[in-house]
Amino acid sequence: MPKARPETSERDPLGRAIRLLTWMVDSPRSEWGVREIAAELAFPPSSVHRLLALMERSNLVVRHEASGTYSLDLEFLRLTHRAASKLPLPPSAIDHLRHLVHEVDESATLGLYNHQRQMVLFHALIESSKPLRYIVELDRWAPITAGASGLAILAFLPEADRARILSKPLEAFTKTTITNPIALEAELVRIREQGYALTHGQRQPGAVAVAAPIFGAHGQVVGDTVLTIPEPRFDPADTDRFVEAVRACSRAISAELGAVEHSPA
Question: What is the reported pTM?
Answer without folding.
Answer: 0.71
